[in-house]
Amino acid sequence: MIDPEIFGHNKQEFIEDPYPFYAQMRSNQPIFRSPRFDGAWMLFRHRDMIRLAIDPRLSSSRARLPAAKIPVPCRAEFEDMFTAFERWMAFKDGGCHRQRRRQAVWALAYLTEEHLTPLVREVAGQLRQQLKAEPAVDVMGSFAEPLPALVIAELLRAPASMAPVLKGWADDIADLYGSTDLRVEDIRRIQGSALHLLDYLRSLATTGDPASILAHIQAHSVDGYRPSQDQAIALCIQLMFAGMEPTRYLVGNAVRALNQHPGQLDLLRRQPNLMPGAVDEFLRYDTPVQFTARTAATSFTYEGHRISAGDPVLFYTASAHRDPEAWDRPDDLDITRSPNPHLGFGRGPHYCLGSTFARVVCQEALSVLLDEFPVLQLHRPQALDWNTNLGFRGYRSLYLTRGDPVMAAAP
Ligand code: HEM
């Protein structure tokens, strides 16, 4: 038995394989209040996520949850950063959320699969040349990471040289919202990145190209709402951050899943038309966004537990995806699974706004990697390098070799 109180979002042993812990929690303590996580409620079953993810008694207003880690006398220092993040649509509820979301959906309607595919394909084609240079290639550093970063830089009309800088700032924001073990000095570093990013986007907004995503956002008024520059920048940060972080980890996790399931890899190679369904199954089988968070807007009782107003509530989506009450053979990767109503892009009013982007990037990336690596053989599988953040779970680096097919599947 694993003691749930030692569970943490930054602990290597859980990051590597959180699924046995989730199974234990589903069986024994599916609704668990953790003193370690500022009294957060942790929910592991599919049925609880289905019921509560759309329950108005839970609020998305959680921009300041990480502030609980900051000693009260230091909090004022971080006001600028939290004020900026509070503008995110993801942290809004009710009418305000609906208004911002409708406007964003209109403004971003041009980012269809048809629009994105040629752009993503072109960038993937350029990056592919670098994959050829070495016998062992880090597919994260050389491909899965720069691919969405370069596409987003292009959508912002920022120079390609800014892509790694934007990615670094996005990594820091991911640390803020996916970690449990932050120290004040970590939050200081994150605030530094957030403020640099804000300044950079402000400079793009004033001098930028009218075809940039920022200009698109500001150009549209829907139901009388036109975002101010600060609101447009807030949406842009969210798109940039979400576009770079989980998307790259989804590609890496998919590569690893195929490496561990040679039968499924073989099937996908023989039937590339299965790719869209395969991406859904990768989102179910090993989603990078392992949990989503809410706070209780009011006090209420759920399944005998008294949840108090203000309590954080964490839904472990990745656990819901392995819940045998909801899925047939939940621990099997099956790229033909249909239907596949996974929760990888969320559920309800906050359903992911970038699902098309994520799907296109993942499909295009995997098509290149399957083509480029005749077998998806890991180089040194015993030394996998994880990003130690369960909120955005995936590999920092993942080396593939062009190797011997007999050795292809890693344990
Ligand atoms: C594999 C990649 C991705 C995954 C797994 C993912 C997952 C999610 C999830 C689970 C939510 C719901 C969060 C909640 O209910 O609190 C969400 C919301 C959101 N995602 Fe994604 N996402 C991905 C990629 C993207 C991309 C590429 C973009 C933009 C370019 C994006 C933009 C957003 C936005 C703006 C929201 C908030 C929507 C709202 O509050 O109405 N995501 N995403």
TrEMBL record:
The keyword Metal-binding applies. Belongs to the cytochrome P450 family. Pfam families: p450. PROSITE patterns: CYTOCHROME_P450. Keywords: Heme, Iron, Metal-binding, Monooxygenase, Oxidoreductase. This is Cytochrome P450. It comes from the Bacteria. InterPro entries: Cyt_P450, Cyt_P450_B, Cyt_P450_CS, Cyt_P450_sf. It comes from Streptomyces blastmyceticus.
